[in-house]
Amino acid sequence: MTVRVLIADDQALMRSGLRMVLEECEGIEVAGEAIDGSDAVRQAAAQRPDVVLMDVRMPVLDGVEATRRIVAADPDAGVLVITTFDLDEHAFAALHAGASGFLLKDVPVDELVRAIRAVASGDAVVSPRITRRLLELHAAALPVPGASPAEGGPLGALTPREREVLVAVAEGLSNAEIADRLVVSEATVKTHVGAVLAKLGLRGRVQAVIYAYDHGLVAPAPPQP
Known about the structure:
Blueprint: E1 3-8, H1 12-23, E2 28-34, H2 37-47, E3 51-55, H3 63-73, E4 78-83, H4 89-96, E5 101-104, H5 109-120, H6 128-137, H7 160-170, H8 175-182, H9 186-200, H10 205-214
Parallel strand pairs: 1-2, 1-3, 3-4, 4-5
Helix pairs in contact: 2-3, 3-4, 7-9, 7-10, 8-9
């Protein structure tokens, strides 16, 4: 399967570099280049790429709002945020807006390609380090340590197995790893993940991670020394 990628970045040199790298990768096709967020929204609608590589700091329309509009127009769109700093609040805002992942611009090529393929397949790219930063930025919204998870509302509609799957997703496990933990097939895990997202009204795995932490299902891991 060929993965079609739209590159959205206001820096011509960055767009050119990403295009050169991706065009050398088997199974990846560059569908186009966007020079700002507004251009990214237009081209995403016209080109229907599998993945949009989205810079967040762009003129005219930033990557956060561009992500929100692209996802609103096509809920199946995969947006992979790329940024220079791992403490970029704009990038975290893009995750809330529906992006499926977050990478630094200096990421190794093989990791970039893996991330693109993961997002194209409907998975998410949320490393433990990025999750930790995300939680630090939103610490004020988290429950008091030791508080019981909220049981009412949409969360109460989850079955025990769906709750197990949500916790595993929040811990950063892939579908294959969750399948190993629960001793079920990957297809069964995908079904459970889909049910969790539907019942909680979530856009994807990234938002599921945030939801699980916000509702006290899992606790932030301490920073690594």
